[in-house]
Amino acid sequence: MTNFFIQSYLTYRALFFWLNWPSYIGNVFLVPVLYITMLLLTGRFANSPLDSEFYVLGMAAYSTPFILIWGITQCNYYERVTGTLAHVLGSSGNRWLIFWSKGTMHFPNGLFTVTSSLLFAWAFIGLDFTNLNWVTLVVSVLLFALSCTAFSLCIGIFAIVMRSWLTLSATASGLLILLTGVVIPLEDLPFFLHYVGNVLPLTNGVTAFRAAFDGAGPMSVGDHLIWELGVGISYGVLGYLFFLFVEADARRRGAYDTSIL
Amino acid sequence: MVADSINAVECVNLGRVYSSRSALGRRRDVEALKDLNLEIPKGSVFGLLGPNGAGKTTTVRILSTLLTPTSGRARVLGYDVEAQAKQVRRNTGFILGGERGLYGRITGEQNMHFFAALNHINPRDAKRRTRQLLERVGLAENAGMAVENYSRGMKQRLHIARGLLTDPPVLFMDEPTIGIDPVGAQELRNYVPELASEGKTILLTTHYMAEADMLCDTIAIIDRGELAAVGTPGEIKRRFSRIGIVELTVNRPREELAGEILDLEAVERVESIAEGPFQKLTVSLRFGEDLTDKIVEIVGTDNIESLVSRDPTLEEAYINIIR
Fold first, then answer.
1. What are the DSSP calls for A101-133, one per residue?
2. Which of A197, A261, B257, B291 shows the smallest number of beta carbons within 10 Å?
3. Which domain does B279 fall in, by range?
4. A7 to chain B: nearest residue by CA?
5. B149 found inside a domain
6. Are residues B257 and B157 in the same domain?
């Protein structure tokens, strides 16, 4: 286990290019604040029937996949372009641990960013914590951070294959903002997109997260929490299987250091 | 099942075809290796030589499990590189030339710790082994420096240290001295006999003939994916050069000299270069011919600063094989 954490820590230090103060503070703390403010003002000027809290909580939750997707895909991308991928896969390292080690140290970033977003909303927008059920809040945040980490690791394998992280991250983040109910209520989406939303991370977690502010206990949103966990596990297993497939395919095609994969 | 073989590496009819498709879907196959048969005895230093695209790196990549063969089979210490890839990885280290393959943003020491963790070395042993290896390759003082600030030679030494982390009995070194200055390259070459004396089997690919001549017990020359020659450096020179060399330094350079000597029967090639105020001619003759008198006659006795007949070098034998 110690070796897993050494791997996770060093791979994070080595490949997370936002790990300098301006980039880190900008992306973990400032970007979510700007998103929250922008959506809040847009909602107000558009005379949205939804209250401010809907946008504020949605965007606070959305800050988690934002930092996770962009952070994890760039680590996978840089693993390939710096030429270290061949050395990692040429080692006798455990593939399951290699796969998860790319996300472990990013997971806390997902928690930091949602926490700081909530603090901002409380201090400057007047987010009401009076009815908050803390247990539901903590469990829902932990679960959607987990499922978003697994989703990002899965997307990250595409970053290895496509040797691109910007397009992928932008597409995945866009997909989540549109289809998970953080800005547009799920029931307002066409019915088939409703189903798509349910197999994405965050969708059920954000429902439980919002319910926590209305005082809902964990049992009353249990189905959403279990669904969020299931989505996370599914993406974790899917991503790992995809990682094994990409490794085998790269060995077959000889594509570790070439542009063809 | 692991065979108790005297060979560390065995390739039997090993082949590799790279396939790609054009934008219109047309399939294009490139045969990088064709029926390669190699046997590398345990504890030996084996050189793999060949021009660019000959299949050297493909061979190393297959043996280090980064690539699967499309035909034939390869075994390392008796383990099949496809079916028993995990065991092969546990017993081999690979050292690639060039600046890539290291984490630039973390220190040399952290790079070592990362790969130690990856290879299941417990943290205490990893620290001890890292210290020993960085000391050995002369990087102990720079262990705490970010690798992106290392010179190319330092990065190459770190590659070597990393390759030795698991103390593997078999080492694959793919052009380890490429792009390094002569002093740095010489330092790196010194590790090869040192590692061989510890009983390690080393497969070394290189473009540098002098390096192969100096370091390897056995050399294989591959060209366009096929084995063209194999033997000790001495055997290769004797068997494949089929030429004799006369080297002479001329006092009063004359451009036409090379052409006049080339007109002699049994002369295969003449190279002419300026060396300060002199002209240096290297004449390749058919094996067994002695044209010294005729060459002296053309050049003029009083015009010759020096004249030496010598055996061909490995490079000359190599050129003869590849042409």
1. HHHHTTHHHHHHHHHHHHHHIIIII----TT--
2. A261
3. 239-322
4. B114
5. yes
6. no
Cβ of A14 within 8 Å of Cβ of B162? The answer is no
> Would strands B267-275 and B7-21 be described as parallel, antiparallel, or unpaired?
unpaired
Residues 6+ positions from B318 with CB-CB distance below 8 Å? B49, B209, B221, B236
Q: Which positions in chain B touch A256 (Cβ < 8 Å)? A: 66
Q: What does the pLDDT look like over A33-52, one tens digit per residue? A: 888 888 778 877 776 666 77
Q: Has residue B56 been placed in a domain? A: yes
Quick one: B166 and B258 in the same domain?
no
Query: Vertex A111, ends A106 and A114: CA angle to 5°?
Result: 125
Q: How far apart are the first and last CA of chain A?
A: 32
Number of domains into which chain B is organized: 2
Tokens representing residue A40 in the block: 């809040």
Residues B216 and B135 in one domain: yes
Please, which residues 86-125 of chain A have a Cβ atom closer than 8 Å to chain B?
Answer: 86-94, 98
What confidence tier does B128 reach under pLDDT thresholds 50, 70, 90? very high
State the pLDDT confidence band at A259, using cuts at 50, 70 and 90.
very low
Task: Kindly state whether residues B21 and B99 are assigned to the same domain.
Answer: yes
Give the closest residue to B58 by CA, choosing from B221, B157, B174. Answer: B174
Over residues B59-103, the pLDDT tens digits come to: 999 999 989 999 999 999 999 999 999 999 999 998 887 778 899
Instruction: Answer yes or no: do B210 and B76 share one domain.
Output: yes
User: Does B26 share its domain with B54?
Assistant: yes
> Does a structural domain hold residue B1?
no
B30: left (phi over 0), alpha (psi -120 to 50) or beta: beta
Residue B293 pLDDT level (bands cut at 50, 70, 90): confident
Question: Given an 8 Å threshold on Cβ–Cβ distance, is B90 in contact with A86?
Answer: no
Is the ipTM beyond the 0.85 threshold?
Answer: yes
Q: What is the CATH number of the domain that holds B259?
A: 3.30.70.260
Task: Find the residue in A nearest to B104 (Cα).
Answer: A14
Q: How many CB pairs under 8 A join A and B?
A: 94
Answer yes or no: do B103 and A82 touch at CB < 8 A. yes
Q: Which of B66, B98, B103 sits opposite A90 (nearest CB)?
A: B66
Contacts of B23 in chain A (CB under 8 A): none
Distance from first CA to last CA of chain B, Å, rounded?
Answer: 42
**Residue B2 falls inside a structural domain:** no
The last residue of one of the domains, among B231, B252, B267, is B231
Q: Is A159 on the interface with B (CB under 8 A)?
A: no
- Tell me: do B286 and B156 sit in the same domain: no
